[in-house]
Amino acid sequence: MQDSTIAVERTALTITAPVRSLARRIQGKRADHVVHGVKTVIAALLTWAVVAPWVPLNQPYLAVATAVLMVNASTVYESVRKAAQSVGARIAGLILALVTARLLGPTAGAVTVIALIAVLAGPRRTADDRLQIASTAVIALTATATDPMGHLLYPVLQTLIGAVAGIAVNALVLPPLYLNESGSALRDLAEALGSLLHDMGSGLAGRQLSSKGYGWLHQARALDKRLTHAEQQVQQAHESLRWNTRCVAHTRRRNTAHTDSDAFKVLRGIAIQVRGIARTLADSAHDGHTDHHLGQQFLDRYSQALHLAAAAVQGSVETHLIAEPSDASPRERLRTAIDETLTWHHAMTGMIGLGRLTKPGAWHVYGSLMTDLERLLSDLDHAHKH
């Protein structure tokens, strides 16, 4: 009765979880668009009000464009980094324009020299930096013919003021945080790992090793994309905390980012073991030596372990992401799943050692599968204890 209740709850969770996740993402995107729009308007108007009174012809377009670029940076740290690069590239371009105009005048030869210098600027500068330096220098050539210093200072000051305004608005008006995105990516990764483990367990119990072996291996290899995405989200969450005023009085947010990083390391190790299990099963299914095929007694027992491991993997992220006193239930489920799988592991290891399983020629395959499972459980157990 208890098993059927758990199965019903798992089925309901499988159906409703993606719907809730999609609803949260849609609501989050709409809220983000509104926030970005409001911040962009504030930065543009603030920059215009500060710069317009003293620039020639009341045209502070460069300052406004710079402010809009900085306020829409993904994080506060990123906006500061972009501002430093933009101002530095702008100054370098203006100095290049001044030097070439003094030597060659605003001619085609000056444009050629500027292009060559920008291309050969060296590997330390990115392609965007070199392009910005060259474009700034070419545009500034016409200004240097009449009033070199005066017309060169205005673009530099506009860029600097626009960068400061954009950074200030980005840092003070709901600075971006990506903790929810990080947690969502980890949950998706854990769900994919658990789903593959569960699918392999069901396939082994249903005598489907030969027909599904390579499919499992393909799914395991496809997990690399989810791993890359989760890693990027966790890194962005960490970066979004740097110089973020929203986190000054919220220690829990900083702790959440560190916890997400630890959870990703665990899931990355688990993904390696899951891929190893899938590879071993696929190779065994199509091995031409009949005495290397796995015995069905072992496969039946191993399928049970994979089901337990699937529950433990998904429970590990649930425990990591929600660290409240009310989490006794998820933690207990995780602990129970790990303990049950460890007990099974010890029993199977003893049976293999005593030669009680059929197909003795497949001992190396048994060993590979047991080792991968042991490492998976070790990662889970270590994460749970800490």
Give helix and strand order, one letter per element, not per position: HHHHHHHHHHHH
Specify the overall morphology.
elongated
Termini separation comes to 34 Å
Number of helices: 12
Helix proportion of residues, in percent? over 70%
Structural class call reads mainly alpha
Beta strands, count: 0
**What percent of residues are in strands?**
under 5%
Describe the structure.
By secondary structure, the protein is an all-alpha fold. 81% of the residues lie in helices and 0% in strands. The two termini are 34 Å apart.
How would you describe this structure in keywords?
386 residues, mainly alpha, 12 helices, disordered N terminus
Write the layout of secondary structure elements.
Layout: H1 2-51, H2 61-71, H3 76-104, H4 108-119, H5 127-144, H6 148-172, H7 179-205, H8 209-240, H9 251-285, H10 296-321, H11 328-353, H12 363-385
